[in-house]
Amino acid sequence: MSGMQDSIAIQxxxxxxxxxxxxxxxxxxxxxxxxxxxxxxxxxAKKFFVDGTKIPDVEFDAxxxxxxxxxxxxxxxxxxxxxxxxxxxxxxxxTKDLIFWTNGGPGCSSLEGFLQENGPISWxxxxxxxxxxxxxWTNLSHVLWVEQPVGTGFSQGAPxxxxxxxxxxxxxxxxxxxxEVFSELKGNNLWVTGESYAGFYVPYIANWIYEHPGLELSxxxxxxxxxxxxYGVVQQEIPALRFAQANRNLFPFNSSFWAELQQISDSCGYxxxxxxxxxxxPAGQLPLVGTNGTFSVTRxxxxxxxxxxxxxxxxxxxxxxxxxxxxxxxxxxxxxxxxTQEFIYFNRTDVQDAIHAPHIxxxxxxxxxxxxxxxxxxxxxxxxIPSTLSILPNVIDKSIRTVIAHGLAxxxxxxxxxxxxxxxxxxxxxxxxxxxxENETFTVKNMGVYGNTHTERKLTYVEFYFxxxxxxxxVPWAAFNTISFLLGRQPSPSS
Length: 495
What we know:
Elements: H1 2-23, E1 49-50, E2 65-71, E3 81-87, E4 97-102, H2 110-118, E5 121-122, E6 131-132, E7 142-147, H3 164-181, E8 189-195, H4 198-211, E9 218-225, H5 232-246, H6 255-268, H7 273-277, H8 304-314, H9 349-354, E10 371-372, E11 379-380, H10 392-398, E12 401-407, H11 415-423, E13 426-427, E14 430-431, E15 442-444, E16 448-456, E17 459-464, H12 471-474, H13 476-486
Parallel strand pairs: 4-7, 4-8, 8-9, 9-12, 12-17
Antiparallel strand pairs: 1-2, 2-3, 3-7, 5-6, 10-11, 13-14, 15-16, 16-17
Organism: Gymnopilus junonius
Protein name: Carboxypeptidase
GO biological process, one term: proteolysis
């Protein structure tokens, strides 16, 4: 049984290593609250101040921050307001940068990103209580988490946008109002970041800022993780079967169902799509298969949802956001994606009072539409063209750096679909990457090979091992590397 004893000893060593990693964030007891790396002279800033020693259930001094509702325009009768939480950089040398963060959805709260991904306080799935986050992006920059668009989280007002140009205009209006109160941030470098549906949000916001000068921030680049970049057939249907086949131990279907899936894949043009069309460089524009000449997959060519439904029967807690999750499921204090928690943190009135939020029923993702039908005014959907087919090339060309990251255990949006979207995009005078994305090219210090990365013409693409949809949550050390690279703190995404 010596082999089993060795395994137990190695597991114990791993626990010690993990504790050592996490201890880097723990503050010694009795140390007074640290001073902020920035102060604001405008008296209006005082009403937004959050005392880091009085955030409910946070049993450590999180430091000073500012949060609350800010209107999207200076109009006296403006009713539309976005909720924000601003945290200063931890290091005085990092105060010339400002990271803007938004979650996706559409209609999902950026407070999810704050509490479970990249903020200074971490209360992730299964954690009994909040802890300091050693990989908080405030270790690199000021960070501004914003719940947008209108209709998301604590944000107030009636949604009235039908596309992401209108969304971007409202975000720019918010930022202008924000800078009037927090004017010491004027002139800072701005980096717009987000995940998931932020593949629409972030490029459109950045493009609007580039094309409408006047914001007193200097936009330098963007970072988007597991992003919506193209049509659903590209990022879900085409790569779905290959993904399941590559992870057969997590998709243990019987032979008859595998045969059924293979028939769909063959007849709809999915099976050899990546091998045939995703070449380096690409031979031309990549075709949109399985849609019968439209932009949506036909009923007969749906393969992603049948796979998800079938695996959910075999694994009752199957997580489309990270397919390696298995029974029993971990609860989330935000109620998403698991809802076995005792309470939802941001729905507590003591928490709302501490961060100057309205007393409303807060949800991680809204149950109502955040877009309207421009013709009727009724609830609607986003009419924007996917960013790789519209404005993202312009953003890449005008930015210092653009980073697209993707977790390889994500099934709601599949990494190979992102590769398709990139190879179908023209920027910097050429279509797609000209040379292949080499395996085992992304590394993390003290951990070794952690994925794949490739850079051409100011666009960097990174794929993370071990990560699902929310990369700063699942592999925070790897995501931190790529943000450090985005800001120019390190010469490569690898460390």
